[in-house]
Design brief:
alpha/beta; D-Maltodextrin-Binding Protein, domain 2; nine-stranded mixed sheet; two-stranded parallel ribbon; 321 residues
Length: 321
């Protein structure tokens, strides 16, 4: 079953208008923004909302706001009133990479957002279409050298961690890799299954189900060690590419100025859900390493990652526009 269809079924099953995290002070619904279309971020938001509904009895409305590599969703959050009725689930690219890569960024993650909780960390993966000849990174590199006009790879958005991993691979291997951006991992995965693109880079959680179904093949992961969920897939490091490492994360943010009592309540609630055995079993299967941090811990992680990636991006000379 195609990932897009799976996500549509999940969306209908949960009704999109889901009960969720913490009822706003006046009892109204809470918007839960996802800045991409389809993929693991939407699935994760729906799962968190479903669990919070069952356990806390408030209402959340999950809204996809795709476009501009997550910047549209980020601006929706920035401009939302800080009244405890809006939050967003942001993958790593939105608060960390996009402001470093794009010139036209009208938000500052530190200044404009209130960190709530980091939900999970995740490695990325390189996958190839089912009929692609490569079964390893070395095989993919050899193929790219022989087919320079065909060496495309799909990614969920321009300026994403997936694109930057592609830049790392190309630089380390001495090949040309041309990125093909989509409005989310879901549409990209559909095209990879159909063979419209030869390869794709995304979070393991976006790719693992179709890999298990033998609709395409994951040939490498970007962490420092193999994943328990994919013990057969070696890391880039194991395959002779030691500098090809990238770990992303997914965090929940609110508009800056949201009352601290609301932020702390949400943070505690999400951390409790994430650390439950039920969530651990479900989400670990999708390739997430669950974290469930406090607001302060997410703020510290955000500062540290901006400091780490800023010189890397600058040294690469890479800009998305």
């Amino acid at each position: 079953m195609r990932l897009a269809k799976i996500l549509r079924i999940l969306t209908l099953a949960t009704g999109i208008c889901l009960a969720a995290v913490s009822r706003a002070d006046d009892g109204g619904p809470i918007r839960f923004l996802v800045p991409f279309e389809g993929g693991s971020a939407t699935a994760l938001a729906l799962y968190l909302a479903e669990r919070a509904n069952a356990e806390y009895g408030a209402h959340i409305h999950v809204e996809e706001k795709p476009g501009a590599s997550g910047r549209i969703g980020a601006m929706v959050l920035k401009n939302a009133p800080p009244d405890g009725k809006t939050m967003a689930l942001f993958p790593f690219v939105v608060p960390v990479l996009a402001p470093l890569i794009f010139k036209d960024v009208r938000y500052d993650a530190v200044r404009d957002f209130a960190p709530v909780s980091q939900i999970a960390a995740y490695p990325l993966a390189l996958a190839v279409s089912q009929d692609h000849p490569a079964t390893s990174v070395a095989g993919f590199v050899a193929w790219a050298k022989d087919h320079p006009t065909e060496s495309f790879y799909g990614m969920g958005s321009t300026g994403s961690l997936a694109q930057f991993l592609g830049v790392m691979i190309a630089q380390e291997a001495g090949i040309v890799l041309k990125p093909v951006p989509y409005k989310g991992a879901g549409p990209m995965t559909v095209d990879l299954v159909a063979g419209h693109i030869p390869a794709g880079i995304s979070s393991v959680s976006d790719l693992i189900e179709m890999h298990r179904a033998h609709r395409f093949r994951i040939i490498a992961v970007s962490g420092t060690q193999r994943l328990a969920q994919l013990p057969e897939v070696p890391t880039f490091i194991e395959q002779g590419y030691p500098s090809v490492q990238a770990i992303g994360w997914v965090g929940i943010f609110a508009p800056r100025g949201t009352p601290k009592t609301v932020v702390d309540r949400w943070s505690t609630m999400f951390a409790t859900i994430v650390h439950s055995p039920q969530a651990a079993a479900r989400l670990a299967e999708l390739g997430f390493e669950l974290t469930g941090t406090s607001s302060g811990e997410l703020a510290a992680t955000l500062d540290a990652d901006i400091a780490r990636w800023a010189p890397i991006v600058k040294a690469s000379g890479f800009h998305a526009d």
